[in-house]
Description:
This protein has helices at 68-94, 98-138, 146-196; strands spanning 8-9, 24-28, 34-37, 49-52, 58-62. By secondary structure, the protein is an alpha+beta fold.
Amino acid sequence: MALLLAFVVLPLAGAAGQGRKAPVQCWTDDRGQRVCGDVVPPAEVRRERALIDRRGVVTGIVPAQKSQAQIEAEARQAREDEQRQAYDRFLLQTYPDVPAIERARDERLAAVEAQLRLTEKAMADTRVTLADLRSRLARPAAAAPAAAEAALQSRIDQFTVAEADHLKALARLRDEQTRIDDDFARDIARYRALRSSGGN
Length: 200
């Protein structure tokens, strides 16, 4: 189509009337003005530009140069897509059906549950020992040497640390149970979507 919009014309390379090797290019600057020339300033190469022939007809479009942020975002998206596709292949190749995924989930949960029960037992034993040690320390014992009381307090401190460690372990294991449930729920939903779409 003919170029009808008003625009600013940059000086053309070469004298008037001489043939040009480079086509005229037009773009919109920061002020919204249409600018044309056969040489594009370095600051403007980031913009989309129209190629114009001698008749004023648009013959092509030069796409805008991507910013570094855009390049990095596209690369990041490409990596994420590749990882998703690789995981999709893993799901389809590893599990013949949804019940197989559910069995794998249940096995993982059972292993964590066993660790949880052992940790709860250790916690209970630690608290029983702590109660006994604190009771012994609180009894009047005027004849007890200071060294014995210090040793008793040291044991109480050790079991107090063990109690805190057990609490952290229990919280971690319960978080692991939740994570396993969530991860497998996503896997099952994705597996069903892949199967319904033919595995693509």
